[in-house]
Design goal:
The protein is about 65% helix and about 10% strand. It has helices at about 10-20, 40-55, 70-75, 105-115, 125-145, 145-160, 165-175, 180-190, 195, 200-210, 215-230, 235-245, 250-265, 270-285, 290-300; strands at about 30-35, 60-65, 85-90, 95.
Length: about 300
């Protein structure tokens, strides 16, 4: 904002705006809340903005409240015609109009989208950078079958970020691999809602559900024999697929279910397909193996 030709009061307002809002926006995402004391919708929105801004503070988000009555010149520069008006600013530029985000979930969704696109300086970003190599090491150790060592690593990372989705989910999967199912379930059950609803934790829950269904080794052999004795017995093959999933034989389970779907897509109201999708969830929907199996499923369904 240029100050040439402005009154002393307007110059002071511009300088305060630069100091309190523009300068912090060089490294942070600033939420601009244009409001007034007489505005009832503003009063209703304020607690939502304040709560979300506080929750996102470690992600580099700041809230700046601008009283339009006390800052008419600034409001005019932003062409504020009605209130509440809410903008997001980064590096001195408006990057989003958040006015229509009137609920906490809407505001969070908007902020998440913005933060994925801009290089905000935040404590969370610094922590992510610190955790990334440690999480990669823990995942590699777990995938390599060193379950006890993986758990030790996850326990150490959890001291730094106990509610991080990748930490919580990885630790639970290590416990599951060690057969400590009750501990894994207890750990997952105490996670806060935001962490509990993440895809990583949902994957761990799916893996836990499968582990609880795992048969003993001799039971698996009996189920396999029963399915082999009568290839037309879809119930036996369905039971076999479940046992294979629970025993972590994802290749065998996928092949059993894909063959069943190819033979009868609608058997038992699509039960085989539903079980295959459950397997995909447990493995992780972003896993390359799942992508390959999805292509096979699509070829069967639509080929």
């Amino acid at each position: 904002m240029a100050t040439l030709g402005l009154s002393a009061a307007e110059k002071e307002a511009v300088e305060a705006f630069r100091r309190d809002i523009v300068e912090p926006s060089m490294t942070k995402l600033v939420i601009l809340d244009f409001w007034a004391e007489w505005c009832e919708p503003c009063k209703a929105l304020a607690p939502i903005l304040e709560k979300v801004a506080a929750d996102y503070a470690d992600k580099g988000v700041l809230l700046a409240k601008i009283d339009v009555d006390a800052n008419q010149f600034i409001a005019g520069q932003f062409q504020v015609r009605s209130i509440p008006t809410v903008y997001a600013m980064f590096q001195g530029q408006l990057v989003a109009d958040l006015t229509n985000a009137r609920t906490e979930s809407q505001l969070r969704a908007n902020l998440d989208q913005i933060l994925r696109q801009i290089p905000v300086d935040s404590d969370a970003a610094a922590q992510e950078a610190e955790l990334e190599p440690l999480l990669a090491m823990a995942e590699e150790v777990l995938a390599g079958g060193e379950h006890e060592r993986a758990l030790i690593i996850y326990d150490q990372i959890a001291e730094m970020a106990p509610e991080h989705p990748l930490v919580a989910a990885g630790r639970a999967r290590a416990l599951i691999a060690l057969g400590r199912l009750d501990e894994a379930e207890a750990a997952l059950n105490v996670l806060p809602d935001e962490t509990a609803k993440t895809p990583e934790v949902e994957r761990a829950r799916a893996a836990l559900a499968l582990a609880k269904e795992a048969p003993a080794h001799d039971e698996l052999a009996a189920i396999r024999a029963r399915a082999a004795a009568n290839p037309q017995d879809m119930d036996a093959r369905y039971e076999l697929a479940g046992a294979q999933m629970a025993a972590n034989d994802r290749e065998g389970a996928a092949q059993t279910l894909l063959t069943m779907i190819a033979e009868d897509k609608e058997w038992n109201d699509g039960a085989a397909r539903a079980r295959l999708l459950k397997l995909f969830e447990a493995v992780g929907l972003e896993d390359p193996w799942v992508s390959a199996q999805r292509r096979k499923l699509s070829a069967i369904l639509f080929g």
